[in-house]
Design goal:
The complex is a heterodimer. Chain A is built from 23 helices and eight strands. Chain A is α/β, with parallel strands linked by helices. Chain A has three domains: 7-210, Pyruvate-ferredoxin Oxidoreductase, domain 3; 304-396, no CATH class; 401-499, no CATH class. A six-stranded mixed sheet of chain A has the order 2-3-1-4-5-6. In chain A, strands 7-8 form a two-stranded antiparallel sheet. In chain A, α1 packs across α8 and α13 packs parallel to α20. The radius of gyration of chain A is 30 Å and the shape is elongated. By secondary structure, chain B is an alpha/beta fold. Chain B folds into four domains: 15-248, Thiamin diphosphate (ThDP)-binding fold, Pyr/PP domains (Rossmann fold, 3-Layer(aba) Sandwich); 253-379, Rossmann fold; 412-584, Rossmann fold, CATH 3.40.50.970; 603-697, Alpha-Beta Plaits. In chain B, strands 3-2-4-5-7-6-12 form a seven-stranded mixed sheet, sandwiched between helices. In chain B, strands 16-15-17-18-20-19 form a six-stranded parallel sheet, with helices on both faces. A five-stranded mixed sheet of chain B has the order 9-11-10-13-14, sandwiched between helices. In chain B, α1 crosses α2 (50-58). Classes of the chains: A alpha/beta, B alpha/beta. Chains A and B meet through β2, β3, α3, α4 and α5 of A and α9, β8, α12, α15 and α17 of B.
């Protein structure tokens, strides 16, 4: 009996990521290097955006010829018997580990750390992103050798596709008995995108030979333009608030100056002060910090004026150019999908006029259809610029007063609770996160927020109320129809009625 | 034209005697058909044999040279009925489809051809869509072989064995006047390997010769009294002939060692997995050398009692490796042994699971349990390594990745519209069909209650005929429509005065199976007749309420759907939603656009984007779309924590995002970008003016902003 075992490779990829091309490259290279190669896959529906596993097995031809027999190669990987796992995405690496294909004595894991989010992560109403660190911990624990880096960015910077970087990673890992040239020959022989693929291959090779795990995040946003003339205000803010809250406070202040003006920043600070005096130093002013964040978000509520302003900025033009990868000087145009309703027009107008317009429901017909506005052409741009010009009058607008009243009620509640039930005050603060968006989304959030506040009024400030509010907040984000929240509220209400 | 082209690979089909043929399983099957002198070939696409149909389609040149007739059948029933040509004439014919679903559809014709019996070899190549990656109900084709008495081949999954099985399959068919099924599992269809080729053979007898010399034999027609004679003939003549042939040509293999009081009986298709499991237990080497005797069933029906009894006679116990249920082979082996009064223990589904795929891991565990029970001394020599189970915490982190609509898919907007209607009118009963549109049942749409089979969406809703306050909606694709939905769905609804709504998705192809052409395809197909509008067929059937809509127009689809549901008119309400399959459209258009760009012609590329500073992180847009290129990324705003929506560069600019944000009144974050390549002078002039005016106002606004900034 021979003790020579085939080399087993499992390629775990997403549909359309070129897992098949990678398998073909490996097969072609192995055959050129004197190996018998077998590969198989399950395309089927998995090809339509699902996860796909390719299984490749290699056996030295000389051994087979010597024995005068054909090796019997497997058509699917068996846990504990996989020499190399190549995962083209981080969660797929996790899936390979979960399925037992990555084992400490056998497996070299070559994986890209970039994420291609699953539908459940994407469609969550808030933050549904899975914890990549858990996968990293297990990858380190289960792989005999781990080569992991962001191959997606490497591929993009090389103008190539991820399969070439993975191929380079495989070469750099030295897990197959083939020289670098053998890999490069296969790419050259393929004849398509040779230069780009070789470049991607080289990136992968270099990173894998370094053999260091490297987790890339998204690149940090560039620092905003420096402020001029606002130093006094910043100094005052720094003087009036403890250092624990200053970063968040200044972030909020900058947002509001940009949103409205410096006077608005002063209002912001004034609103925050009662919270600060109710807060505790030994709790690191956690509450004030959190309120600073949420108050800034609420005070910069998203209205038509704000959207028009953001959409017409020079920096926005640059960002779009960058995003769509326009070449320098290339002509691009954008069209915005807007659907202002009568309510939005009412909201931005000065209060008495807004109230009047709001009653003219016969105008609704004008706003039924959405509008496409070309922001990089004159009429569209000028129209939006005109709307943006309403910024100075925002303070007297129909909506502003409503928002400020609601904010003050919320802040009073927090300030009062801070003394008696700090955790509850914290939870109430976080409930602001439910109010976001425009139109229906905003209304739904506001409804959830108000429903929770009403319940808090009934529940009082007992010990477990903070937990209840936290559960309600989660429930509000569980579905769009609000059914889960309604059920939770019902539970609490019937409970308190019984008590 | 299909999604994948085999134009290059089919050249390998010309390989001659002694050449080393390397390629995919389905390509090897095609080569084997040509080596066998096949006269006609037909079939219906569907994983895992879609590629076989694509290869045959791309190989029509070579087939023509050899005088082989190829037909892309309208359904598996059409394909099976094609085998009628082998009843009276010495014509070798092969048909193929996805099983068990295709065999279900084909079973009427199959039963007839099996009753008539064949003169020329008749081979049915079935892609057994069982186990990982399958999209259908988990059943066995074995039952069809048993009920109609069609022989079932299940060769070892290497190309040489598969090719041999095709060739001997024809011979077996002719020797026993019985059609033969060749079962190929998913991975075997796609396995890349090698075998030694032979020359292609022209058919000894051609379709043309048959047509010019018709033969009529009433004894071969399924009609009394011949039908009764057929049943007797199957038992008295065809079966024994088959058994003789299988014995004589040693189609089943005795592998492994010759000694020992335990042995293994395995279906040929599972042989490689068995050997790997033995290897991992230290009981075999990479060449499959093992001391344990193995009886490998390359023919799983009929079974050969002589071989079984002979194999078992000197053994205390055997392991029977038979995938799927019911355990037909195990039952039969027990019966044979009982009748021969042999006391060998048959252990099969005791240590291996009754249901589900026999993966390497499952096989290894079952095998270990068998050895531990029956021959523990074998294991002692090899201490087995226990692998620590993967951590449970990963189960919560690793999220499922269900299949879904592709980037820019024209079917997505239909379900967005349906979701919007649901918001207004509440949920209604939706009867789904087979095709890409079935992905509507998965997140994010979660629409659809049942699916009853290809083309049966409308029929699946036919019981809902009450005068209820809500109406049932059925979905059907163009593929399903031409496959049988035309009669079973639409004809049925017209005839029975059904008031239901039928949404017919017309994407120009049989898209889910790989983009093959169908009657209503818009493309010119050199060998097929296309461009037969679905609407014309519907009118012909008597559909009066008929509307055609562009799928991407979400608002209109929503309004028409609402109208259809509310309509007081009698009879089925049929909406034909048109939009070309994006995968195929891209494949068609991309090279053209690339060429235009290269030639300096003006090209406008569109794609979508999301402004990060206005996106609120609610993801309502994603819940109404699920497009792979509409994804999320961490929020760049330090005050916000929810990830924002983001359109990646795979966007093909189908326009759906914009339509949705209008139809559903979403946030104003979406923009559509037009990127102009090779602009003209007028383009540049306009752009210059726009840039300078806009730039002026932008710098003004920037100055103001800096003035108030901190």
């Amino acid at each position: 009996m021979t003790s020579v075992r085939p080399i087993t490779i499992s390629i775990n990829a997403l549909g359309g990521q070129g897992g098949g091309v990678l398998a073909e490259w490996i097969v072609e290279m192995a055959e050129a290097e004197g190996y018998i190669a077998q590969s198989t896959s399950i395309p089927g529906v998995a090809q339509r955006t699902g996860a796909t596993v390719y299984c490749v097995e290699l056996f030295p031809k000389a051994m087979a010829e010597e024995a005068g027999k054909e090796p019997v190669l497997a058509l699917m990987p068996v846990p504990g018997d996989v020499d190399i796992v190549i995962a083209s995405e981080w969660m797929e690496a996790g899936r390979a580990i979960q399925r037992g294909f990555v084992t400490p004595n056998e497996t070299t894991l070559i994986a890209s750390t970039h994420r291609d989010y699953t539908i459940s992560e994407k469609s969550a109403m808030g933050d549904g992103i899975a914890d990549a660190d858990i996968i990293a911990e297990n990858a380190k624990k289960y792989a005999r050798r781990l080569i992991a880096f962001d191959m997606d960015s490497a591929a993009r910077s090389a103008g190539s596709v991820i399969s070439s970087v993975l191929f380079g990673g495989l070469a750099g890992a030295g897990a197959l008995p083939f020289p670098r040239e053998a890999y490069e020959d296969v790419i050259r022989h393929g004849g398509r995108m040779v230069e780009e693929n070789l470049k991607g291959f080289a990136r992968g090779y270099a990173a894998a030979s370094g053999a260091e795990i490297e987790m890339y995040g998204d690149e940090p946003e560039a620092q905003r333009a420096g402020a001029r003339g606002g130093e006094n205000l910043v100094r005052t803010l720094r003087r009036d608030f403890p250092h624990q809250v200053q970063d968040m406070l200044l972030e909020g202040a900058r947002r509001l100056a940009d949103y409205q003006d410096r006077k608005y920043v002063v209002e912001y600070a004034d609103r925050l002060k009662p919270i600060l005096s109710a807060d505790h130093k030994d709790l690191q002013y956690r509450l004030t910090r959190e309120v600073a964040r949420h108050l800034a978000l609420w005070m910069s509520y998203e209205d038509t004026v704000r959207v028009a302003d953001l959409k017409t900025r020079a920096s926005r033009t640059e960002r779009v150019r960058d995003e769509v990868r326009a070449a320098p000087g290339q002509i691009i145009y954008t069209r915005e999908f807007m659907h202002p309703r009568l309510e939005e027009i009412r909201d931005m107008l000065p209060r008495p006029i807004g109230a009047l317009v709001g009653r003219m429901t016969f105008l609704n017909g004008l706003f039924r259809r959405g509008r496409k506005i070309s922001t990089m052409k004159l009429s569209g741009f000028l129209m939006l610029r005109m709307v943006a010009a309403f910024r100075p009058t925002r303070r007297w607008s129909y909506r502003h007063r409503h928002e400020m009243l609601a904010i003050d009620t919320w802040l009073n509640r927090i300030a009062t609770l801070a003394e008696v039930n700090y955790d509850l005050a914290m939870e109430i603060t976080k409930c602001q996160g439910l109010i976001k968006g425009y139109g229906d989304t905003h209304e739904r959030g506001m409804r959830s927020f108000n429903a929770i506040m009403e319940t808090v009024d009934k529940l009082g400030d007992g010990n477990n109320v903070a937990d209840q509010v936290r559960a309600l907040r989660k429930a509000a984000l569980a579905d769009e129809s609000g059914k889960v929240l309604a059920m939770e509220l019902e539970k609490i209400n019937s409970h308190s009625a019984a008590a | 034209m299909a999604e994948r082209s085999f134009a290059k690979e089919v050249e390998k089909l010309r390989a001659g005697n002694g050449e080393n043929f390397r390629g995919e399983g389905i390509l090897a099957v095609t080569k084997a058909l040509l080596q066998s002198g096949v006269s006609y070939v037909g079939g219906y696409q569907g994983a895992p044999i879609s590629h076989l149909m694509d290869v045959l389609s791309d190989a029509q040149g070579i087939l023509g040279e050899l005088g082989v007739h190829f037909e892309a059948s309208a359904s598996e029933a059409s394909a099976a009925a094609m085998l009628a040509a082998s009843v009276n004439y010495p014509l070798r014919g092969a048909v193929t489809w996805k099983s068990t679903v295709g065999t279900n559809v084909a079973s009427d014709a199959l039963a007839n051809v099996a009753s008539s019996g064949v003169t020329g070899g008749a081979l049915v190549i079935i892609g057994e869509d069982y186990g990982e990656g399958s999209s259908i109900m988990q059943e066995r084709s074995h039952a069809f072989a048993m009920k109609s008495q069609i022989w079932l081949l299940d060769p070892r999954p290497n190309l040489q064995s598969i090719v041999d099985a095709v060739e001997t399959g024809f011979e077996l068919s002719e020797a026993s006047n019985t059609p033969v099924m060749l079962e190929l599992r998913i991975r075997a269809c796609h396995v890349y390997g090698h075998f030694t080729a032979k020359d292609n053979k022209r058919p000894e007898f051609t379709v043309r010769e048959a047509m010019e010399n018709p033969v009529r034999d009433t004894e071969r027609i399924v009609l009394p009294p011949a039908n009764f004679a057929h049943e007797q003939e199957k038992i008295a003549s065809r079966w024994p002939k088959a058994v003789d042939f299988i014995l004589k040509h040693k189609l089943n293999e005795f592998l492994g060692g010759a000694m020992g009081d335990v042995g293994i009986i395995v279906q040929g298709g599972l042989y490689n997995t068995l050997i790997r499991a033995l290897e991992l237990l230290g009981l075999a080497d990479s060449f499959g050398e093992t001391d344990i005797p193995i009886y490998c069933l390359n023919v799983t029906y009929p079974l050969i009692p002589e071989e079984i009894n002979g194999f078992c006679a000197d053994k205390k116990a055997i392991l029977l490796v038979e995938e799927g249920q019911p355990d037909y082979i195990e039952q039969a082996v027990n019966t044979y042994l009982r009748k021969a009064d042999l006391q060998t223990k048959v252990i099969g589904k005791d240590v291996l699971p009754m249901a589900g795929e026999y993966t390497g891991q499952v096989m290894k565990e079952g095998l270990r349990a068998f050895i531990e029970q029956q021959a523990p001394e074998l294991l002692d020599k090899f201490p087995t390594v226990n692998i620590s189970a993967p951590p449970a915490e990963l189960n919560d982190t690793v999220l499922p990745r269900p299949a879904g609509f592709c980037i820019g898919c024209p079917e997505r907007p239909i379900f967005t519209a349906m979701k919007l209607v649901e918001r207004e009118l509440g949920n209604f009963h939706v009867s789904c069909d087979i095709g890409c549109h079935l992905f509507s049942i998965l997140p994010p749409f979660n629409i659809g209650n049942t699916t009853m089979g290809y083309g049966l969406g409308a029929a699946g809703a036919s019981a809902f005929a009450s005068d209820a306050s809500k109406r049932a909606v059925a979905v059907m694709g163009d593929g399903g429509f031409w496959h049988n939905g035309l009669t079973s769905g639409v004809g049925n609804a017209v005839f029975n005065n059904s008031d239901n709504v039928l949404l017919l998705v017309d994407n120009n192809y049989s898209a889910a199976t790989g983009g093959q052409d169908i009657l209503s395809s818009r493309a010119d197909n050199p060998t097929k007749s296309t461009r037969h509008p679905i609407q014309k067929a519907l009118r012909g059937l008597g559909v009066n309420w008929l509307k055609t809509v562009r799928t991407y127009d979400v608002t209109t689809v929503r309004d028409i759907l609402r109208e259809a549901i509310a309509s007081k008119e009698k009879g089925p309400k049929v909406i034909v939603a048109e939009g070309e399959c994006m995968l195929n459209r891209q494949r068609r258009e991309k090279p053209i656009v690339r060429k235009m760009m290269k030639n300096g012609e003006r090209v406008v590329r569109t794609r979508f984007g999301v402004d990060p500073d206005t996106c609120t992180g609610d993801h309502a847009c994603i819940r109404l779309s699920g497009c792979p290129s509409l994804t999320i990324k961490p929020n760049p705003d330090p005050l916000k924590t929810d990830p924002i929506a983001h359109v990646n560069n795979d966007c093909v600019g189908c326009g759906h995002c914009g339509e949705v944000s209008h139809a559903a009144v979403l946030c104003p974050s979406f923009y559509e970008a037009e990127i102009i390549y090779n602009p003209g002078v007028w383009d540049q002039f306009k752009a210059g003016i726009r840039r300078s005016v806009i730039g002026f106002f932008q710098s003004l606004a920037d100055r103001r902003r800096v003035a108030r900034a901190l």
